[in-house]
Amino acid sequence: MAPTVNVPIGVSSNAVCMTPIVPIRTDTRRRVTGMPQASANGVHLEYETFGDPTADPLLLIMGLGTQMTAWPVPFCQAIAAAGFHVIRFDNRDSGLSTILDTPTPDFGAILTGDLSTVPYTMSDLATDAASLLDALSIPTAHIVGASMGGMIAQQLAIDHPTRTRSLCSMMSTTGAPTVGQPAPEVLMLIFAPTPTTREEAINNTQHLFEIVGSPSYPTPTLHTLIAEAHDRSHTPEGTARQLACILAAPDRTPALTTIKIPAAVIHGEADKLVDVSGGYATAAALGIDPLIVPGAGHDLPEELWKTYVDAIVENASRATGQ
């Protein structure tokens, strides 16, 4: 069966208004001094840590076309202050991590079930994360993922159960075609023509997130955040490869039912990018009750940081016995 379009993202100027067949190749990246990189699973991953290196490690995984900087520094610091060593990183094909030089995926073929041009799998991205832990000499960690990062986090818990202390899946879904789908108006924005200028890319992304962001918690600095992300790294061809990976991923529901570690699911009730049904389905597969947040969409508004941090910390603490 051909895969259903299921395209969650975070705040990025890479992932919107992208021609689905032949995106323009752009690699405009600005190195940030002082940020370390680790060699992991054949790629280099840019990462940053917060808190006491001897504390329990907690890995944050971000979504499609979205950089680690979408995890706000105060958000990371709040988790660290609760007694965790927090690691955030750029996935392959995003941010300042390795951007592959491989042919553009054939989305027309992918949507008919031909996956021969898909460059890597969700398991590959999960292994990237596990290999980053290896590079940091961390045997096990609490895993938290948002959007596509939630998919990677789920796959990490499935493929590498001995590395995963706890799992928190945020604004994500199981991969089942009947749940977690974007609203039709969102799909139209995602598959619009590729922007040709910086201004256009930033404005298009802002328009998207005015639609999919939290209706009860608008972000007044949204334009600035998107511009900063664009100027740090703008790699739409990398986002296209990540999107192909999502479209090719199988339904994780059966495997999720086998996960026995402490788990949490957080989802905005008003999420138009990954419908809340994806959160409910993920929680049902894990055998838990989800935290459904009224008025929240597909973002991390400052007013909800405490709610999300408390849920992450509470779930991780159940694994550590705190």
Topology of this structure?
Blueprint lengths: L27 E2 L7 E4 L2 E8 L5 E6 L11 H9 L2 E6 L17 H4 L11 H14 L5 E6 L1 H12 L4 E7 L13 H7 L7 H15 L9 H11 E2 L1 H13 L4 H4 L6 E6 L7 H11 L4 E3 L11 H16 L2
Parallel strand pairs: 4-5, 4-6, 6-7, 7-9, 9-10
Antiparallel strand pairs: 1-8, 2-3, 3-5
How would you describe this protein?
Pfam families: Abhydrolase_1. Residues 57-300 form the AB hydrolase-1 domain. This protein is globular. The chain has 322 residues and is an alpha/beta fold. α3 crosses α4 (148-159). Helix content is 36%, strand content 16%. The chain has a single domain (28-320), classed as Alpha/Beta hydrolase fold, catalytic domain (Rossmann fold, 3-Layer(aba) Sandwich). The protein has an eight-stranded mixed β-sheet, with helices on both faces. The chain has helices at residues 73-81, 107-110, 122-135, 148-159, 184-190, 198-212, 222-232, 236-248, 253-256, 276-286, 305-320, and strands spanning 28-29, 37-40, 43-50, 56-61, 84-89, 141-146, 164-170, 233-234, 263-268, 291-293.
